[in-house]
Amino acid sequence: MEIRIASTEEEKRLIYQLRHKVYVEELGWGYDLPEGQEEIQDAEDAAAYHYFAQDSQGQVVAAYRLHFGDSFTIPDSWHACYALGSFSEYPDHVFSFSGRLVCLPEHRGSSIVPRMLMKAYDDGWKHGVRFSFCFCRPRLVELYERLGFIRYKDNIVDEVSGIGTPMVMLNEDLEHLQRLKSPFQKICRAHLPSSETALWFETRFPCVRAQAGIKSTSPDKFWQEWSAALDSRTVAVLEGMTEEQVRTLLQAGTVLECKAGDILLREGEAGHEMFLILEGMARFTRRKENGSEWQAGLAGKGDAFGEVALVSRCKRTMSVEAVTHLKVLVISKEFLQRAMKAMPEIAMRLLYNLSGVLSQKLSDTTQRLQQTLSENEKLAVMMSKQQSGGKVQAEDTLGGQDRTLKVMKRDASLAPQNSFPQMKKKS
Length: 427
Known about the structure:
Layout: E1 4-5, H1 9-26, E2 49-54, E3 60-68, H2 76-81, E4 95-103, H3 112-126, E5 131-136, H4 138-147, E6 150-151, E7 156-158, E8 162-170, H5 174-180, H6 185-190, H7 196-204, H8 208-211, H9 214-217, H10 219-226, H11 243-251, E9 254-258, E10 263-265, E11 273-279, E12 282-287, E13 293-299, E14 304-305, E15 319-322, E16 326-332, H12 333-342, H13 344-384, H14 391-414
């Protein structure tokens, strides 16, 4: 399929409809849209370059938005998100901003997205771009890092899409692109790059650039740092794996750091990745019918959550918030799909362990439900023995218990879709 830039309102409308299919229908993001509206559009779309690809039936199957700094007034929110004050020595026209990357599921394993990104990168050179900024969800951090983007500041929590990571690529940094074996390195070399921005970045953000490739260049150091938290003897989803297999698995994941108060997962959104806690603590909450929240549990170092997202398209049934500074290892669904082909033994063991974890959680929920049923039966017998003068009170009480029982049954039906952490005993 040919990669083109939208030039008509009809082409843009099809792109906005694709966003709705992915963001709302698939991912479950909470856009506040008028009833019946099935397009996602915002104020920044007017000044953007919209890259897209269409199939033979005219359906847009993938799209990507790119802003060049000289074509619009950069919003204040973007200044804050990307900490552009740190780049004030450079004019806006050497900046570009990527976003709104969407692709239909059946085309995500094709060459469409890589070709789209490479065309946008080449166009950035033609526009004189030296710093390319993007903001992505945890499961895409690995993809962007392999391309050459660098994490240089704290995560941001967007009210619609949730937690995300601001990143920047130094378009002229051929050394970094070669070190990562980025597909962009050939394009970069063809434009005769300078090392000026790379040297400036090293001064402004010491060590950040060098550490960006540490996972691929120093697997032993990475393993040593996290091996205590991810001991296959204590982490259920890694049980039975050899040290070498766990190392291989870890190298395919992404380590994400979060501040206390950051929301990693939100109830109702689609899941695409699981998380293993390396440091810190997280809490799990769920909404009540009246809109308030109740805390369902805590998780700490070595605990996993979100496992079911690797094997199911179900939506998150709980929200997860960082209680302290938190480091988590992100393992995406895309990685699992690749692993089934490249390392089937590891993928099979991981899936086997996931089935065991989910079965145990279902068993625990069933046991709690049975206990509640037993307690309600005892209460019903006790109430039936009361004097007739207390009949009305007994009926009210039993009615309340019946409502509680219905809630428990509802929770039980959701349990297989959830990812409850192992509850820790209070000291």
